[in-house]
Specification:
4 domains; 8-stranded mixed sheet; alpha/beta; Rossmann fold; 721 residues
Length: 721
């Protein structure tokens, strides 16, 4: 044993690896054949142990105790405890039953490398305590390097110095294979899927040849926290790095709020908006401040695109553009599905950023078509279809979808989509799915959202409503409109027939026209208006709040005015609204009041304005007033209520006007969901029935509100999703 701080200490080395060959090699490294001083009967016990998932996937885990004159050491937890720990990473070991008596005969038998493990042992009180703490490894202080090429050999000895309780650039809990660290405060909170995402970031961004990656994690699963933790570890190791976060402007406040919650160092956060930098000269000053110190810059997609695509002959304009293209060391794209369309200015602008370290975050990666995902992959990994590592899989996939030679991203993706959607040969679909996953496994991490299974539950229904006579009389007029106008006019018509006659006018004239209409209408003429009012009344009686989403302002304004007239409610007290025109502060205030006030009854949300960063867990009933052609937009909206923090079961009603063009839109949207589920969620245990709508009887829904006569009389068909 070694003398440490005046105490006799023993060292236990536990080698962790998923790879049996690695584990065997590690054991040989410490065997008596290769190191005569490391023997079982002298000083060191080497154990090839089970894989510690929650302990940051560490392949070398050092445990040591510093108690005096103890002849027996608890080495491994009992098998039962280990099995419980595998299924529940938060489980703490209470005792350990397997013991090995190990005696140290004299001082000095350990070589210097092993002696390094025995320093600072007075801070580890017991083996079971050490199992439940994140590993802390250290390196000797050295000059910081930004080439991001420092990697440890899988079984090399990590030098250990006395553990510091204070965060520094060199004292961190480390992720797998690198010295990028998770702060101990974050390590206590991080979930397994977040740890997997963190490690994907490390493998791609901190490598000899760094590249980008995609984190496609379900809404509400903690993507922002994961990235904040990574950014802080990245900056702690590489303080000269300059991260740039591009995101929808509306969720900037949410990001800053999360930084305030999780930030463990004082990292300045810059943006153009909070300082009123609305011209290039002011923006250049912000960019210079960001570039001058360890800090983070936030920009909205539109603002970023305007600056980068500005080609005015001006030194200030050129300086702003060059700084955004050349300074970022790390580019993070929240709601990263935004730049998914080829030849758009936003995608072209982001492709010009010189750093290879690009990260896409998305709760709904698949939006409309396979080609959009391929475009995003090409953004984070330029030329990914033609990379050497991709060639075999690409050729195999092309042979399965009947493409004879290398084609463009568009041609490949269209053939893949057609196979997944229309091919009657399910075996061929399976082959394509497997190849898609193989092609993207190193750069794309998908998380369905099992964390949401911990919530009280979700019942999601497509509710087909029978239109009223007056609505049916007007329905034939929709065939004369193009697709977009048909959708807008139809959305209003399905709420109430009177709305179909309101012309396309500005907001002031629209509101005035609605004010006039609500004074004299018969509410029962509109089936969706009637359904909305009935569900709201029933939910209110049950002490539940309601969210109502639409892609158009007219239906929401109409229902808002109707509630003021019918119930005497007030906007800002019982009624709230979040739209694209709602400012950041007003949005935050509406969320807080709706979630926290007992007076709040209903919140109307523009479906595109209520994406990530919006938490409306005060509501447990959700009505989607119209069908959006992009199903991911609807999923995002539902995720405002069905997310961590929700205390009740959530019921969702996606309203569809039966026997109308909206039925076709619903069918098309569901086919898009089918592709997304096949690509990311299909497994051998699934059947084709798992991805179909299932018609249900109202009495089988266990939804007391749907079962009432006033509701069920309008329902033509009901499908559980």
């Amino acid at each position: 044993m070694a003398k440490t701080h005046g105490k006799e200490c023993k060292t236990t080395l536990i080698l962790i690896s998923d790879d049996e060959d690695q584990k065997a090699a590690g054991y040989r490294q410490f065997s008596t054949e290769n190191n005569s001083e490391l023997t079982w009967d002298k000083n060191t016990l080497v154990v090839c142990a089970f894989h510690l998932q929650f302990a940051l996937n560490i392949y070398l885990y050092t445990l040591a105790t510093g108690n005096v004159k103890i002849e027996e050491r608890h080495v491994l937890p009992s098998l039962m405890e280990r099995e419980q720990w595998k299924s529940d990473p938060t489980f703490h070991f209470n005792n350990a039953t397997i013991t090995f008596p190990i005696q140290r005969k004299r001082k000095g038998e350990l070589d210097s490398a092993v002696d390094d493990f025995s320093t600072g042992l007075d801070e580890t009180e017991s083996l079971s305590e050490a199992y439940n703490k994140p590993m802390v490894t250290h390196k000797k202080p050295e000059k910081q390097r930004d080439d991001l090429k420092d990697h440890r050999d899988a079984f090399s000895l990590v030098e250990r110095t006395k553990v510091s309780r204070k965060r520094t650039n060199t004292h961190e809990a480390c992720s797998n294979d690198t010295d990028i660290a998770i702060h101990p405060r974050h390590a206590k909170e991080i979930r397994p899927h977040q740890l997997e995402g963190f490690n994907l970031l490390v493998r791609n961004l901190v490598a000899d040849k760094p590249g980008g990656c995609i984190l496609a994690h379900a809404p509400g699963s903690g993507k922002t926290f994961m990235l904040i933790s990574f950014i802080q570890g990245f900056l702690a190791r590489y303080p000269s790095a300059r991260p740039l976060v591009v995101l929808p402007k509306g969720i900037l406040g949410s990001w800053k709020g999360e930084f305030e919650r999780w930030q463990v160092e004082d990292i300045p956060l810059y943006d153009f908006y909070s300082v009123g930098a609305d011209n290039r000269a002011g923006q250049l000053e912000v960019l210079k401040s960001w570039n001058s110190k360890t800090s983070i810059l936030f920009l909205g997609y539109k603002q970023f695109t305007r600056v980068v695509s500005d080609d005015k002959a001006s030194d200030v304009v050129a300086a702003c553009r060059d700084m955004l293209l050349k300074v970022p060391t790390l580019l993070i794209l929240d709601e990263g599905h935004t730049p998914r369309t080829k030849d758009t200015e936003v995608l072209k602008s982001l492709c010009r950023v010189q750093t290879p370290r690009k990260v896409v975050l998305s709760g709904t990666l698949f939006q409309n078509h396979v080609v959009e995902v391929f475009n995003i992959l090409d953004l984070v990994r330029p030329g990914f279809l033609t990379m050497d590592s991709s060639q075999h899989t690409v050729r195999l996939m092309m042979s399965q979808v009947s493409i004879s030679s290398t084609k463009s991203i568009t041609e490949v993706s269209e053939s893949v989509e057609n196979t997944l959607l229309n091919d009657d040969n399910f075996t061929r679909k399976v082959h394509v799915i497997r190849n898609l996953r193989e092609l993207t496994k190193d750069v794309l991490h998908y998380y369905k959202g099992e964390i949401l299974d911990e919530l009280p539950g979700l019942s999601d229904f497509s509710v087909f409503l029978e239109l009223g006579p007056k609505q049916k009389d007007i329905l034939h007029k929709l065939k004369d409109y193009d697709m977009f106008k048909r959708s807008a006019v139809g959305s209003a018509l399905y709420i109430h027939p009177c709305l179909s006659e309101i012309p396309e006018v500005n907001a002031v004239d629209r509101d005035a026209a609605v004010d006039t209409l609500v004074k004299s209408i018969n509410v029962s003429d509109g089936v969706k208006a009637r359904f909305f009012l009935n569900i709201l009344s029933l939910a209110n009686s049950a002490g539940e709040k309601l969210l109502a989403f639409s892609q158009y302002m007219l239906p929401m304004k109409f229902l808002e005015k109707l509630l003021v007239k019918e119930k005497g409610w007030h906007v800002g007290k019982e009624i709230f609204m979040i739209s694209g025109e709602t400012g950041t502060k007003e949005r935050s205030l509406a969320m807080d009041r709706f979630n926290g006030s007992a007076d709040a009854k209903v919140l109307f949300g523009s479906i595109k304005a209520c994406g990530e960063g919006i938490s409306l867990v005060g509501a447990s009933r959700v009505i989607v007033l119209d069908v959006h052609l992009n199903p991911s937009v609807t999923r995002q909206a539902i995720g405002r209520a069905f997310r961590p923090g929700q205390q009740k079961k959530v019921f969702v009603y996606r309203l569809v006007a039966a026997d109308s063009p909206e039925e076709k839109t619903h069918e098309t949207a569901f086919k898009k969901e089918f592709i997304q589920k096949l690509w990311f969620e299909w497994s051998e245990s699934c059947s084709t029935q798992d991805f179909k709508l299932n018609q249900v009887n109202i009495d089988e829904t266990e939804d007391q509100l749907l079962g009432t006569n006033v509701i069920r009389q309008d329902i033509k068909a009901l499908y559980r999703r």
